[in-house]
Structure formats: structure tokens, C-alpha cells
Write a structure and sequence with these properties.
By secondary structure, the protein is an alpha/beta fold. It has helices at residues 5-12, 16-29, 31-41, 58-67, 79-88, 90-95, 130-140, 157-162, 173-183, and strands at 49-52, 72-76, 98-102, 115-121, 141-151, 186-194, 199-206. Helices cover 42% and strands 23% of the residues. Strands 3-2-1-4-5-7-6 form a seven-stranded mixed beta sheet, sandwiched between helices.
Length: 209
């Protein structure tokens, strides 16, 4: 059974009271997948880390513990999601180590080579021109840096039966690898988790030195 359109759109860009509720639910539902992505990111103390599509911001505290005393940025185009992230990470914001920005990942407000590690989870479905977004990630990632992208792949036929295709666009694992390589990345690791409900995949890519 497909998700209702209004719920699917809230998954893309949470807004209002419903968006706040869904954001908090998603925080719990995505925790395990975030943990796998963070492990693949291989964050070190002092790293400059960016979470693209940070949403509810649940991953930020974990990242901050790993990169201390490094800097941490979260980017999202949903004011509602950022409100949740600010509240959840108020201490980190006050410390000056964390910065949150409202914006889109195809025109990121950062200088070239600003980050050592970049993470994004469950965002690629909403990128109409994925190559443009990945080119921006490559631009703001320093040479030798690592990028991890986590997603439900189009390889899983169950995915298409649940999510409306006018909101979500699913790509196969191989298609995502090709997009990453065309953007200039080299593929470092791939992880896949298969359960009764769905497939999840994570790809770790590196910016060549």
C-alpha cells in the first residue's frame, strides 16, 4: 500500500505541525541506518563534517562526539526540520562547533574544499538532477575526503509499491555508483542490508587527492 501523497511530501520537506510530528518519528526510524552511515564515514578528531539534509539533526550529536574538537555543519531546506535540529542540538550550537544552514544541496553555501567528511541519508530520491547535487558535494569536499550516501535502492521492487513515484525517484545501487564516479569520486566501500521490509544501501566514496 502506497504512502498517502501528503505524508510522502512531508518526508521530502517537513512543514508545520504535521512535519514536526513526522520529523520526530523519522528520527527514531532512521537511527540504525544513520549509525551504519556514520561508521562508514570514519570520522576522526578535528575533522570538518557536513550532514546534508540533516533533517531532525539526530546524527549531529554522534558526529560531534567523533570529530571533537572539529567543526560540524548541518544543511537542510526545511525550516521545520531545522527547528527540530536546533532544539535537539542547542548545546552544540551554543558551543560554536555546530552551524545549521537552510539551503539546497545543489547550491550549497560553502567554499570549495570546506569539509573532510560529508554524510547524506535518504535525500537522493528528491534530487531531480542528482549529478548537480553530487557535483556540489564533490566541490565542498577536500581532496582525500570521504562522502557517504545512504538510500533505499531501486533494486528493491517493494520500494516502488510503497512510495509515490511523483515524489520519490529511486535509483539502483549501480546507477548511484556511476553518478558518483561521473562526479569525480572513487568508490571505497558499499554496504547493503536486506530485511523483510526493504533493502538499504550505503556507498562510501572518496575525493581523490
Amino acid at each position: 500500500m502506497k504512502k498517502p501523497q501528503f505524508i510522502a511530501r512531508q518526508g521530502r520537506q517537513p512543514s508545520g505541525l504535521l512535519g514536526s510530528i513526522i520529523g520526530r518519528i523519522m528520527s527514531k526510524e532512521t537511527a540504525a541506518a544513520n549509525d551504519i552511515a556514520i561508521a562508514l564515514l570514519k570520522v576522526s578528531p578535528g575533522d570538518r563534517v557536513l550532514d546534508v539534509g540533516t533533517g531532525h539533526g539526530a546524527a549531529l550529536a554522534t558526529l560531534a562526539a567523533l570529530n571533537d574538537p572539529g567543526s560540524l555543519d548541518g544543511l537542510d531546506f526545511s525550516p521545520t526540520a531545522l527547528k527540530i535540529a536546533r532544539k535537539r542540538n542547542s548545546a552544540l550550537l551554543r558551543s560554536g562547533r555546530l552551524h545549521l544552514h537552510q539551503g539546497a544541496s545543489n547550491v550549497m553555501p560553502y567554499a570549495d574544499e570546506s569539509f573532510d567528511k560529508i554524510l547524506t541519508m535518504h535525500t537522493i530520491y528528491f534530487w531531480e538532477e542528482a549529478a548537480t547535487h553530487l557535483a556540489e558535494v564533490f566541490r565542498v569536499l577536500a581532496p582525500g575526503g570521504r562522502f557517504v550516501i545512504g538510500f533505499r535502492p531501486g533494486d528493491d521492487t517493494r520500494t516502488a509499491s510503497i512510495f509515490p513515484d511523483n515524489v520519490y525517484a529511486f535509483r539502483t545501487i549501480e546507477d548511484v555508483k556511476i553518478l558518483l564516479e561521473e562526479a569525480g569520486f572513487s568508490i571505497a566501500e558499499t554496504e547493503r542490508q536486506d530485511d523483510r521490509k526493504s533493502i538499504l544501501s550505503w556507498i562510501a566514496a572518496e575525493h581523490p587527492r
